[in-house]
UniProtKB/TrEMBL annotation:
Binding sites annotated in the UniProt record for Mg(2+): 209, 223
Record: residues binding substrate: 274, 331-333
Binding site for ATP: 46, 53-55, 109, 112, 117
Entry protein name: Succinate--CoA ligase [ADP-forming] subunit beta
HAMAP family, alphabetized: Succ_CoA_beta
GO CC annotation, single: succinate-CoA ligase complex
PANTHER family: SUCCINATE--COA LIGASE [GDP-FORMING] SUBUNIT BETA, MITOCHONDRIAL, SUCCINYL-COA SYNTHETASE BETA CHAIN
Protein task: Succinyl-CoA synthetase functions in the citric acid cycle (TCA), coupling the hydrolysis of succinyl-CoA to the synthesis of either ATP or GTP and thus represents the only step of substrate-level phosphorylation in the TCA. The beta subunit provides nucleotide specificity of the enzyme and binds the substrate succinate, while the binding sites for coenzyme A and phosphate are found in the alpha subunit.
Needed cofactors: Mg(2+)
Any GO MF annotation of the entry: succinate-CoA ligase (ADP-forming) activity
Enzyme class, broadest EC rank: ligase
Reaction equations catalysed: (S)-malate + ATP + CoA = (S)-malyl-CoA + ADP + phosphate; GTP + succinate + CoA = succinyl-CoA + GDP + phosphate; succinate + ATP + CoA = succinyl-CoA + ADP + phosphate
Cofactor note: Binds 1 Mg(2+) ion per subunit.
């Protein structure tokens, strides 16, 4: 689960990390009151969307002005004007794609006299099952481009869970950022606070870009991006309250209600599969035959007919879907359950696109019999290769 910058900074502030004072704004008329509570005379007005590249982003609407999603205001009046230009308009960044995201929230914070910019992030290294740090002197830039062009400027290391964070980890960060003296001490203290927050809140990723030093010799987290491990959210009801559904795909929200693993993609063949590995293989073979999957959808091993029906409805609601491929290997999952769910869903929402179904495993004969006697226009397939070829041909 992702959260907004201002929410991430509130969490970091609770753990003692240095962040600027700021206030979220939901309505343009709140902007002046928020700015008046800050020291000034410089204010930063930031669009709050779940995507990076806001500073270089552009608004679709002319009314939003020519500037990006992060603007420097030199007066309270200018901060309010920026708020009116940005709220309710669509910001397009390198991460949003051409559709962009509507700005429904802003964050107005106190300006900073920046001396240097750095990059600091923490994430779960799945290869080592450890928390890893990624540090670079090249802050404020596209870290992917830095990794590609000048990988020597990125330092990574992980923390052994047996010992936890140790003082030498903080020194390692300070050395990587070429900080000395009091700034090195501040870096060590900051690393401790960020690590504590990361562990306590079951974070999956914490990115500070940029981490800055100010003209008066202080470290400050100028930006903050945080995502949490979904499987640990049951331990943190306070974090669930931070969820902004307007930033999420409606189909993914609906899928979460039925405990379905669903991710929307840009293709035109809807996929319903049981098991993540089989789902990935299904997506790969669709691409092999020249088409593109519209989604990743894993109904799981013990899905009910109701769950299958919900999954089918989510697929069909996508206007980009021109055909559907159901690929089930019945182990715990029974093929007759899948068949019944598909029939129930089609009766409720109709079937306007080609449907290819490949069933194998537990109760496969019964499942095929149910589908063949349903009267539905279902294209049967013998195996995955056959199914992929048939659905690609059907939409061509």
């Amino acid at each position: 689960m992702n959260i907004h910058e201002y929410q991430a900074k509130a969490i970091l502030r609770d753990f003692g990390a240095p962040v600027a004072a700021g206030f979220p704004v939901l309505k343009a008329e709140e902007a002046a009151a928020a700015a008046k509570q800050l020291p000034g005379p410089v204010y930063v007005v930031k669009a709050q969307i779940h995507a990076g590249g806001r500073g270089k982003g552009k608004f679709k609407e002319e009314a939003a002005g020519p500037q990006g999603g992060v603007r420097i205001a030199k007066s309270i009046e200018e901060a309010e004007a920026f708020a009116r230009q940005m709220l309710g308009h669509t910001l397009v960044t390198i991460q949003t794609g051409e559709t962009g995201k509507q700005v429904n929230r802003l964050y107005i914070e106190d300006g900073a006299a920046i001396d240097k910019e750095f990059y600091l992030s923490m994430l779960i290294d799945r290869a080592t099952s450890r928390i890893a740090f990624v540090v670079s002197t090249e802050g404020g830039m596209d870290i992917e481009e830095v990794a590609h062009s000048t990988p020597e400027k990125i330092v990574t290391f992980s923390v052994d869970p047996a010992t936890g964070l140790m003082p030498h980890h903080g020194r390692h960060v300070a050395d990587a950022l070429k900080l000395a003296g009091d700034l090195a001490k501040q870096a060590g203290a900051l690393v401790e606070k960020l690590y504590a927050a990361f562990v306590a809140k079951d974070m999956e990723m914490l990115e500070i870009n940029p981490l800055i030093t100010t003209k008066d010799g202080k470290l400050r987290c100028l930006d903050a991006k945080v995502s949490f491990e979904n499987n640990a959210l049951y331990r943190h009801p306070e974090l669930m309250e931070l969820r902004d559904l307007s930033e999420e795909d409606e189909k993914e929200i609906e899928a979460s209600k039925y405990d379905l693993a669903y991710i929307s993609l840009d293709g035109n063949i809807g996929c319903m599969v049981n098991g993540a590995g089989l789902a990935m293989a299904t997506m790969d073979i669709i691409k092999l035959y020249g088409a593109f999957p519209a989604n990743f959808l894993d109904v799981g091993g013990g899905a009910t007919a109701e769950k299958v029906t919900a999954a089918f409805k989510i697929i069909t609601v996508d206007p980009n879907v021109k055909g559907i491929l159901v690929n089930i290997f019945g182990g715990i999952m029974r093929c007759d359950t899948i068949a019944e769910g598909v029939i129930q869903a089609v009766k409720e929402v109709g079937l306007k696109v080609p449907l290819v179904v490949r069933l194998e495993g537990t109760n496969v004969d019964l499942g095929k019999k149910i589908l063949s006697e349903s009267g539905l226009n279902v294209i049967p397939a013998d195996d995955l290769d056959d199914a992929a070829q048939k659905i690609v041909k059907a939409i061509s």
